[in-house]
Every structure is written in structure tokens, then in C-alpha cells.
Design goal:
The protein contains nine helices and no strands. By secondary structure, the chain is mainly α. α2 packs across α8 and α6 runs antiparallel to α7. About 14% of the residues have low confidence.
């Protein structure tokens, strides 16, 4: 059973390599002529790295979930299948491919929220909680999933441009940012009047 699991893991990596080499995840400029282009290319490199890392993590989560379903117990099959489906959807969101699936998600209210950081961390948290019940490999992958989402949040603090390229802003986030700008403008006006 462990050899079968390793074989499935190898197959997933093989298909992932084919996908990533056949279509580029993020446009990347190899020739940088000035400082602005260099900063843009480093931002693209960073976002591409996080997208690739996210996709690899979801592939490993799928492998763990499929391995969990092989125990043959009804509840294990149900939970493993559900986790596989969620991870496949989140992998499509992370790499924004294939186009028909992404378009379908963008046109639904729930699917649209998956492209925001709020939607991503809620789904990743749920996936991690289920993974923690899937044995040793589940605990390892659940921990790595949480570490990645915290790492992306840390990226948002250090590199806001790259963070905004990875995630879209929800209406709530846009409104809160607009309110904060309005408040800052009010304080600035009051300070100038004084």
C-alpha cells in the first residue's frame, strides 16, 4: 500500500511537470533594461513561485486524500473524495487554469470569493483540519498548508504588490480600504485647517 502511494505521488508530480512546462503560470520578462522592469520581474518571480508552490502543495494533498480513501471505510472514502475535489478546485484557482473552470468559478458568487485571500485561508484552514485526521502524512501536509497560507500573508506585509497580484480584493476589503482612505483624508483636512 505504501509502494502504491509512492507510485501515485510520482504520477501526480509527472503530470504537474507536464502542465507547468506546457503553459506558463505567470508571464515573466527575462530581459530587464531598467530598475522598474527589474522590480516588476522580481515581483512576477515571487508570485510565480508562490503559485507553483501552492499547486504542488495541493497535488500532495490530493495524493494524501486518495491514499486515505483506499482504507475502504465509507466515511474515509467520503472525506477523502471531498478533500480531493476541494484541492482540485483550489489548484485551479491557484494556477488560474484551465480557463473554462476558472471562468465558471468567476461567474459564481462562492467561486469568486476563492480568488480572495479571505476565501483562500478559510478553505485552506478547513482542508488542514481534515488532513490532520489522515494519519502522519495528513498531519505533515496539514501543517505545510497552514505554513504556506501564513507565509503568503507575511508576503502581503512585505510585498503588497505581489500579494495583490496573487489575490483579488473582495467588496468588503475594497470598501474597508476606501473607508480608511476617507478617514485619512478627513484627518489631513482637519490638520491643514488648524
Amino acid at each position: 500500500s505504501h509502494l502504491l502511494f509512492v507510485h501515485e505521488l510520482h504520477s501526480f508530480f509527472h503530470y504537474f511537470c507536464i502542465i507547468t512546462t506546457s503553459s506558463s503560470l505567470i508571464p515573466f520578462h527575462h530581459l530587464c533594461r531598467n530598475e522598474q522592469t527589474k522590480s516588476m520581474s522580481s515581483k512576477h518571480r515571487l508570485t510565480r513561485s508562490f503559485r507553483t508552490l501552492s499547486a504542488m502543495l495541493y497535488i500532495l494533498n490530493i495524493a494524501v486524500a486518495i491514499h486515505f480513501t483506499m482504507r475502504g471505510i465509507y466515511l474515509d472514502i467520503l472525506v477523502g473524495s471531498l478533500m480531493t475535489l476541494i484541492c482540485v478546485v483550489m489548484m485551479c484557482v491557484a494556477i488560474e487554469a484551465p480557463t473554462p473552470v476558472v471562468a465558471r468559478l468567476e461567474n459564481s458568487k462562492v467561486g469568486e470569493s476563492l480568488f480572495t485571500f479571505r476565501g483562500r485561508y478559510i478553505v485552506d484552514l478547513i482542508v488542514s483540519l481534515f488532513l490532520f485526521a489522515m494519519g502522519v502524512w495528513g498531519i505533515v501536509m496539514g501543517t505545510l498548508t497552514l505554513l504556506l497560507i501564513f507565509g503568503i500573508r507575511f508576503l502581503g506585509v512585505k510585498q503588497p504588490d505581489a500579494f495583490n497580484e496573487i489575490f483579488r480584493q473582495s467588496d468588503i476589503e475594497s470598501n474597508s480600504m476606501a473607508d480608511s482612505y476617507t478617514l485619512e483624508g478627513t484627518y489631513d483636512t482637519e490638520g491643514t485647517e488648524r
